[in-house]
């Protein structure tokens, strides 16, 4: 039998599948040949098979590292049913059960062992492994190792050490979302010197992508929903308030809509989801709290009423459309306000160190009695900001939360957190937001943009079903967007090549606008005009017309260091407004 026949045989015997899906065979073959791999395949594409099959075929033991406890348990059950001795080690086990499993492990009773990274050091786990032959380590949800990913887990940083300690076996890393930067992090932080990269299957050809910039978003939604009455669709909005407003708008027009956000009771949420899944309501208005694990394959459209904060979020959310393979529309309603809204939402998550310290002092004063969270959250400052301060304290082990009461973690622990530490992740989030804006304003095929963001090389330059390439279905034209983009994209192209050289003439009308903004800021804050932005910076701004922070910082690297970001926003907003006014007739 040839190698490929053998693989097929195993596939059928152990998994009951007739054939491999795109990419699976290549990954499995690589691993069997002893190569490290990094596979970036979307959710649902069958990543687990890529490590389970080699685990069965390779001699020795396979370790699967995963943060998802329910997944571990399911997979262990499945493997056991198929006659593969396997187990998992996670925090849900009782002390007794843990000891038993460690005993069996030392005896070499298991072929596949799942473990949560937080558990590496439990009960001599690593020592036990040293006495055995580990031939393969599979790292699931590998993006968790990167600060640039969307769910960083510090415990993942220990995996490299584990790999070395168990004799540097073959390593396979698997994830559904990793842009180029995250991919680099994964490889570096796992210590892989050589590896093969597989990225595939991100394209969803039956989804069409549209960016729209209607003057009146509500009107747009109403019109669209009415035109598509009876077709199931989701409208995502950024805040609960917007969800509620949109919901009333639709209901008042007799449209069978449902609503879903985290502020509703769990009972209401279950009912809303159920009604939607069963087709009692056809439109769901929701925050991004909605959608995880919904089982509905015929969603025909997804409207983003507000721009999400990253392409990862966006692509995950639109990925719920058209699971049946039939055409579905993904429409993003862009407006510059969304950029600022998102910035504000991100900022709220990163409180000032002074506030965090003062909250900590209050908790210390309360001492062992603790202080109720509700009491703590009362004050002049917004509840959300206080909440984020408390979250930071919990995250860094300064305080602990038990049944609604906050206690010091260790009595009298000195406060040493710095602003830098608090803000560590903020920069990443802001950069992702910039990328999102760039996507919305891009003049290149949107599908190509998405694929490249996830590091998959598109096989085309125009997909023919996005609002840049032109839409096959309803031929929507976006002339005014194109006009708008003319200005902006010329700017984009230039800022890439030039940091310091002169780049074209300042737009006199825009320069006037910018000077007025500067005046306003100077008046308001008492900061001298030239210290806000000097004339030459304003002139360059008027020439280059930056619309994202990143582009702005390219004009003058000093801007970022001078901490004039707050001013920067006001300028960006004005440039945005200016460009829009100029191009919409
Ligand atoms: P991922 O981890 O990539 O999100 P899973 O490994 O959970 O995806 O697989 C998703 C589904 O696809 C599972 O139900 C699995 O049984 C199925 N599947 C995987 N590989 C194949 C295949 N080659 N043929 C048919 N079904 C498959
Ligand atoms: Zn396209």
In short:
This protein has 585 residues and is of the alpha/beta class.
SSE arrangement:
Elements: H1 3-15, H2 24-32, E1 37-40, H3 47-57, E2 61-65, H4 69-81, E3 86-89, H5 95-106, E4 112-115, H6 125-130, E5 134-139, H7 159-165, E6 170-175, H8 180-189, E7 196-199, E8 207-212, H9 217-227, E9 233-236, H10 240-252, E10 257-260, H11 266-277, E11 283-286, E12 301-304, H12 311-318, E13 328-333, H13 336-348, H14 353-366, E14 371-372, H15 373-376, H16 383-395, E15 399-402, E16 405-408, H17 419-441, H18 446-453, E17 465-466, E18 470-471, H19 479-497, H20 508-525, H21 529-532, H22 535-544, H23 549-555, H24 558-561, H25 565-583
Helix pairs in contact: 2-3, 13-17, 14-16, 19-25, 20-22, 20-25
The structure holds adenosine-5'-diphosphate and zinc ion.
Adenosine-5'-diphosphate binds next to helix 3.
What is the tally of helical segments? 25
Which structural class best describes the helix and strand composition? alpha/beta
Approximate helicity band = 40-55%
Counting structural domains, the number is 4
Bound molecules: adenosine-5'-diphosphate, zinc ion
User: Major sheet: size, sense and barrel closure?
Assistant: 7 strands, parallel
Radius of gyration: 27 Å
End-to-end CA span: 70 Å
Q: Strand order within the widest sheet? A: 3-4-2-5-6-1-7
Mean pLDDT over the full residue set: 85
CATH topology (fold) name of the largest domain:
Rossmann fold
CATH class of the largest domain: Alpha Beta
Give the assembly state of these chains. single chain
CATH H-level homologous superfamily name of the largest domain:
P-loop containing nucleotide triphosphate hydrolases
Tally of strands: 18
CA-based shape: globular
CATH architecture of the largest domain: 3-Layer(aba) Sandwich
């Amino acid at each position: 039998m040839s190698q490929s026949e053998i693989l097929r045989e195993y596939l059928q015997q152990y998994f009951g599948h007739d054939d491999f899906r795109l990419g699976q065979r290549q990954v499995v073959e690589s691993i069997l040949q002893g190569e490290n791999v990094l596979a970036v395949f979307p959710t649902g594409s069958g990543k687990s098979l890529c490590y389970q099959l080699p685990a069965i075929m390779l001699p020795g033991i396979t370790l699967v590292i995963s943060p998802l406890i329910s997944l571990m348990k399911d997979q262990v059950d499945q493997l056991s049913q198929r006659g593969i001795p396997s187990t998992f080690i996670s925090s849900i086990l009782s002390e007794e059960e843990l000891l038993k499993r460690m005993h069996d492990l030392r005896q070499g009773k298991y072929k596949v062992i799942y473990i949560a990274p937080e558990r590496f050091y439990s009960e001599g786990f690593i020592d036990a492994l040293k006495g055995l032959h580990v031939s393969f380590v599979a790292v699931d949800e590998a993006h968790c190792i990167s600060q640039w990913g969307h769910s960083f887990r510090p415990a993942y940083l220990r995996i490299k050490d584990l790999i070395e300690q168990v004799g540097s076996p073959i390593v396979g890393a698997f994830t559904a979302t990793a842009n180029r930067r995250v991919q680099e992090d994964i490889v570096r932080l796992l210590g892989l010197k050589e590896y093969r990269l597989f990225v595939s299957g991100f394209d969803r050809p039956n989804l069409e992508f549209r960016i729209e910039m209607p003057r009146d978003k509500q009107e747009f939604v109403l019109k669209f929903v009415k035109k598509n009455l009876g077709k199931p669709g989701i409208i995502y909005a950024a805040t609960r308030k917007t969800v509620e407003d949109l919901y009333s708008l639709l209901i008042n027009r007799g449209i069978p809509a449902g609503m879903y956000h985290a502020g509703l009771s769990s009972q209401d949420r279950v009912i809303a989801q159920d009604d939607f899944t069963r087709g009692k309501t056809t439109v769901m208005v929701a925050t991004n709290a909605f959608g995880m694990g919904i089982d509905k394959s015929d969603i025909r459209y997804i409207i983003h009423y507000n721009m999400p904060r990253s392409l990862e979020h966006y692509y995950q959310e639109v990925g719920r459309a058209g699971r049946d393979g039939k055409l579905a529309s993904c429409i993003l309603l862009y407006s510059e306000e969304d950029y600022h809204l998102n910035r504000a939402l991100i900022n709220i998550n990163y409180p000032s160190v002074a506030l965090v310290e003062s909250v900590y002092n209050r908790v210390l004063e309360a001492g062992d009695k603790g202080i109720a969270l509700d009491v703590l959250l009362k004050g002049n400052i917004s509840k959300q900001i206080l909440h984020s301060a408390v979250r930071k304290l919990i995250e860094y082990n300064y305080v602990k939360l038990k049944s609604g009461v906050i206690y010091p973690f260790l009595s009298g622990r000195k406060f040493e957190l710095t602003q830098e530490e608090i803000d560590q992740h903020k920069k990443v989030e802001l950069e992702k937001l910039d990328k999102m804006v760039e996507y919305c304003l891009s003049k290149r095929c949107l599908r190509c943009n998405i694929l490249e963001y996830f590091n998959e090389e598109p096989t085309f330059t125009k997909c023919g079903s996005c609002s840049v390439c032109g839409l096959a279905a309803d031929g929507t034209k976006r002339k005014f967007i194109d006009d708008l983009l003319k200005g902006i994209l010329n700017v984009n192209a230039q800022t890439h090549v030039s940091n310091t050289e002169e780049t074209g003439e300042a737009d006199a009308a825009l320069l006037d606008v910018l000077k007025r903004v500067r005046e306003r800021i100077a008046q308001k804050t008492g900061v001298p005009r030239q210290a806000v932005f000097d004339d030459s910076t304003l002139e360059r701004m008027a020439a280059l017309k930056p619309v994202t922070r990143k582009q702005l910082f390219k004009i003058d690297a000093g801007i970022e260091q001078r901490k004039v970001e707050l001013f920067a926003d006001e300028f960006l907003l004005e440039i945005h407004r200016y460009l829009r006014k100029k191009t919409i007739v």
